[in-house]
Amino acid sequence: MKRERMEPVRSPKLDCSAFVESPWPDSTIESCFHRCKRHVYMLLMTILQSAGSLSSFEPPAEAAQDVVYRWLKQHVLTLPRHEATFVTEAEVCRATGSSRTPVREALLRLETDGFLRIVPKKGAYVAAITEADVESVMQARGLVEDWCVRRAVLLGEPLAAALEQLLVRQAELQQDPVAFIECDREFHRTIVRSAGNPILADFYETLRDRQLRMGLHAIAASEERTRVVLAEHAAIVEAIRSGDPERAAGSTTVHLSNTLLAMRLPTTPGWVRSTADTRRSRF
Asked: Fewer CB atoms < 10 Å away: N or C end of the chain?
């Protein structure tokens, strides 16, 4: 009996005419897909969109390190000003529901920012705020804001108008200390950024963060101080509108000097500011 010869099974050729301008009749399946991968990808995306599959896609969640960093920074900044304390990895893990790795990374970032110091086998040491710390931060603010306002004053009326809008909003927030301080920060941030130096602008933000723990919220809770702040801000706006760098710098110095004095005020009820105290607050 004669055995029939079996023909080898050949793989069918892929018709790529739907994807490319000219077909390649001699191409293999793999080669054809390689050449047409862009068209295949586009076709696949079209199919997914028509099926509504892409509507369920969500942007990636915020990195765990960033979540822990933000929580830990806020926690440190709200610690009592005059008390030193340790913060451990374990308690941060429990509070944030995070693993140790993002907590360690967040602690390292905060150490770089100057908010704490990592002590091996003990945790992160958060030092008490001293009067020297308060004065150092305000001196740094004075240097930055003096330089910035002298350059920002060249913008004249447009900058003055923007600051005036913030001033109106701040006046409406006198009964909300947290919002009042945030608006205060935006007022000064606008001046600093207007000077056009992004490095100084970033440095300025770290100074304002440090001030949160130094008691600015307590200052804003004083009705007398909020009125003074609004008046001093108004003087800065008018100085910028005048186009006089010296006047603008002078108004800013007066404001920062009085802020430093307010941060030094004793907590004893009935304490009254003296002329000598005001003179000593200048820097």
From this structure: N
